[in-house]
């Protein structure tokens, strides 16, 4: 991780909009070095139940050559908690952050890389701030409304008694009563932590996510969303992007291309080298 303290924007910080973010990039050799880069900055936006660390395998692949900004979505990680889920609000918060960072970091444009829920938010940012976005990478999500698919996860998370557990292993046992997949267990438990008082907490706003699940499963747009170059990366073993979604994708993203990775929904974690190679080629225009 590179310290950006030669400028007024810290490497870790919270925006005026309440978003927690981290800035990484090439090492600065002196105070006279250019902070920004001729290459667009990469913005990484995680999915549901995640945080800014979830896409670190992508960040590490690119931070040596360009600025990379990792963001905690609202109601996730260290970002603000809201009273209602809203795609427009999420996109607005991120757009404002990108505008805040552009001048001090000398960033001319951004490439958004979003996974799952973060992919949907990235699409909206691109629509509302197309002048900031040079390219868009969407990982395993389509611009559609999804039917409910997280009931077991909700049941498992609610089954973890945060007031009584004394260890992460106890939480795993309680979670496993409803969530049997070891990978999903491990992903969710990454967001379990002890606060300053020693009380176990989730790093995501579980009550709001459960209550507003229908809102975050929806998709608010029809017609053209973003005309710039867009790469959709699908997990072959995932059903989040299906052939029946192709017409909608082309309608909303007419300059879209697609690649398939032999992995599930968390394709960046299962096949990081493949995903990073696809992103690299896309950034180069190949």
TrEMBL record:
Signal peptide positions (record): none
Give the Gene Ontology MF terms in alphabetical order: hydrolase activity
Keyword Acetylation assigned to the entry: answer is no
Report domain AB hydrolase-1 positions.
42-277
Q: Does the keyword Protein biosynthesis apply?
A: no
Under PANTHER family, the record lists: PROTEIN ABHD11
Q: Would you tell me the protein name for this molecule?
A: Alpha/beta fold hydrolase
Source species of the chain: Glaciecola siphonariae
């Amino acid at each position: 991780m590179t310290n950006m303290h030669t400028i007024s924007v810290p490497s870790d910080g919270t925006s005026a909009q309440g978003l927690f973010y981290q800035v990484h990039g090439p090492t600065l050799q002196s105070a006279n070095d250019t902070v920004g880069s001729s290459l667009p900055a990469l913005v990484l936006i995680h999915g549901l139940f995640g945080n800014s660390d979830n896409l670190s395998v992508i960040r590490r692949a690119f931070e040596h050559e360009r600025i990379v900004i990792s963001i905690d979505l609202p109601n996730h990680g260290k970002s603000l908690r809201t009273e209602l889920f809203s795609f427009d609000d999420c996109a607005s918060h991120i757009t404002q952050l990108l505008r805040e960072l552009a001048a001090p970091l000398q960033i001319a444009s951004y490439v958004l890389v979003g996974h799952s829920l973060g992919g949907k938010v990235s699409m909206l940012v691109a629509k509302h701030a197309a002048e900031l976005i040079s390219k868009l990478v969407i990982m395993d999500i389509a611009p559609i409304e999804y039917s409910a698919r997280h009931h077991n996860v909700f049941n498992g998370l609610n089954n973890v008694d945060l007031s009584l557990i004394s260890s992460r292993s106890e939480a795993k046992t309680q979670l496993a009563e409803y969530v049997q997949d070891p990978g999903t267990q491990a992903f969710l438990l990454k967001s379990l932590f002890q606060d300053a008082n020693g009380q176990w907490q989730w790093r995501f706003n579980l009550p709001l996510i459960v209550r507003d699940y229908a809102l975050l499963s929806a998709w608010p747009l029809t017609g053209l969303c973003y005309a710039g170059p867009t790469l959709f990366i699908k997990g072959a073993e995932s059903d989040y992007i299906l052939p029946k979604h192709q017409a909608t994708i082309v309608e909303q993203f007419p300059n879209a291309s697609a690649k398939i990775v032999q992995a599930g929904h968390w394709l960046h974690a299962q096949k990081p080298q493949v995903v990073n190679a696809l992103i690299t080629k896309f950034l180069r225009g190949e």
